[in-house]
Amino acid sequence: MHTFPLTVNHPLLNAYLPKLGPIAASAFLDDEYLNFLMPGIKQYPLAFERTFMDRIKVRLYGKHSVVRVAVSDDSDAWWNEEVGEEVLGFSTWDRNGTLTAEEENVWGRDSLAKSFERLALTLKHQYVALFSLDLISSPSNIADFNTTMEPNKTFTAILHDQSRSIWLGNLAVDPRFQRRGIGKRLLRWGLERAGREGVRVGQWASRAGDTLYESVGFEKVGEYRFGKVRGWGFLWWPDVEKGPGGARERWLLEMRDIGKIKESESLGE
Fold first, then answer.
1. Which of 20, 92, 97, 154 has its CA 20 to 30 A from that of 160?
2. 101 falls in which pLDDT band (50, 70, 90)?
3. Helix residue ranges, H only, the chain
């Protein structure tokens, strides 16, 4: 197995990209969070795939985003000579804040072509919403979610810090190849980048992914609930920010100030 960044200039973009939507749709088919917001995903699976394809394209044409793809090779125990190479999963990452020239080489540079693609995706989304063409989403459930999350705006703003940080958008592994270390391999790239750049990584995740994320060093930093759905905000800190006076300590103080963490809590210390 090997991983690589899928970019708009990749020679096999048109071969790999169409496979990512079906992988995401199958990986998240039973996700309680998405089933609440989009109760029609099992009735309209192709619409669910298209939704994820649009999300992936947003990252593909993002200002500073990376789509990382895992592909099988003949070093894998499950390699099938007759089938050949298979796409196993992918992860999407967004880099916030000001980048150095070296970091831009990794995260990409914005361009007029990218901005046009993002505009086209935005117009498509507005068209679907205007003419009620979204077959899978529930406007009332989305409204309930927004109402539930309204009191957490300060916490969400801190978690989605737009200064120097990385956001993990999606991590999806084909269900046929799960529990083989592929998810950790895809996570490793982003965490190594974060350690090298000295920035934290944030994300939201449902209960299905909490064990995996905690196993690689993410910390639960806030809980959300609506109906029977439950999930957490997660943060991963580079070593340089974990010591006294570092960003992690400052973040703890911010959270205590807004009442999201009690004075006695220390997030695993």
1. 20
2. very high
3. 13-27, 32-37, 45-60, 101-107, 112-130, 139-149, 153-159, 182-197, 210-215, 247-257
